[in-house]
Amino acid sequence: MTDAGLATEKPVVEPGGERDLMSKFDALIAERQALIDTGVTDPFAIVMDEVKSPTQAVIKGRETILLGTYNYMGMTFDADVIQAGKDALDQFGSGTNGSRMLNGTFRDHMEVEEALRDFYGVSGAIVFSTGYMANLGMISTLAGKGDYVILDADSHASIYDGCKQGVAEIVRFRHNSVEDLDKRLGRLPAEAGKLVVLEGVYSMLGDIAPLKEMVAVAKKHGAMVLSDEAHSMGFYGPNGRGVYEDMGLEADVDFVVGTFSKSVGTVGGFCVSNHPKFEAIRLACRPYIFTASLPPSVVATAAVSIRKLKTAHEKRARLWDNARTLHGGLKALGFKLGTESPDSAIIAVILDDQEQAVAMWQALLDGGLYVNMARPPATPAGTFLLRCSLCAEHTPEQIRTVLGMFEAAGRAVGVLA
Ligand code: PMP
């Protein structure tokens, strides 16, 4: 996600009157209203009335195929995962009422950190309340005064916000450009502390980073590397650790950030590392210390899910099959896609403008298919996208149905000739 931020306007101040801080949102409110006035469903206010499985929900009274969630491995309805949550609710109650540092560390916070160490084959794991907070906490704590954070221009908002929360100098490089990264690192003082922040899979287009080359460049300049593997956990690499594992970079990536809100199927975030002093993060990291810990049922479900993901080879294979089938099918129909090949479980369909994107999104929803709509500033280079994210639990028949729906909607809206 890029960081163009919200459209802002200077608030009007009446002489002697109060400055209405909410007036800065007038442009946003008007833009939203104009969209709704065209008669479409608001793409950013969808309600799941019922969720039947990782791939099916009821939206506006209609059975809908879900192709726009990050439930890559379909763990949300796994019987063992659900049972672990129920048991934890019974044994530990609904919440922890406190920080990990005080009264908020329960048995299953320890268990999920152990499951993470085991899954990633590392010595250290620290769990945060969300993936957003993991990036916020790790980046702002690792990079201090006089240090540099070097990040991809298309980084997720949580990476940008981690930079803002901290006091380090920020340097951006062109999306996935090894050359630009090299150039910018070369301009920094040799003796300064440097953290290069990368993502295995970039979530808007579903493209992957040339991590091997980027990590080599980072190391050449004496920088440490943090890789956010939110969108690759569970199915990338021999053990499902992520793109960095797939590329054989386990010895070179210093910190891996991840989330429980995607393949793990619940909520929470984490960082894992082999750094011998990694535990010190718990003593200094404000987004770890000054917030309540995850509820016991959440960490219990996460722990079971992560243990099962470790050996979910068959699910992984099904997810990749689905990604290949959908990517190939959409390409054959003539849609413009975010990547040349099926590089991840995210397949982005690129539309010309907002009007076309909304019309297409609405036609799909009316036909019983939910995909994510994305637009600037969340998307790179002003693109309007319909983002499809696949699940291991999508059946071949569902994928065929989805392709039929895309074809029908594409023709109805005029995207396809
Ligand atoms: N990093 C990336 C790359 C993400 O896409 C996201 C969420 N979409 C996050 C971090 C934040 O994860 P969470 O939902 O756990 O806050």
TrEMBL record:
The keyword Nuclease does not apply. PROSITE patterns: AA_TRANSFER_CLASS_2 (PS00599). Signal peptide: none annotated. Residues 64-403 form the Aminotransferase class I/classII large domain. The keyword Transport does not apply. Its cofactor is pyridoxal 5'-phosphate. CDD domains: KBL_like (cd06454). Keywords: Aminotransferase, Pyridoxal phosphate, Transferase. GO terms for molecular function: transaminase activity. Belongs to the class-II pyridoxal-phosphate-dependent aminotransferase family. NCBIfam families: SerpalmtaseAlphaP (NF047603), SerpalmtaseBetaP (NF047599). This is Aminotransferase class I/II-fold pyridoxal phosphate-dependent enzyme. It comes from Sphingomonas donggukensis.
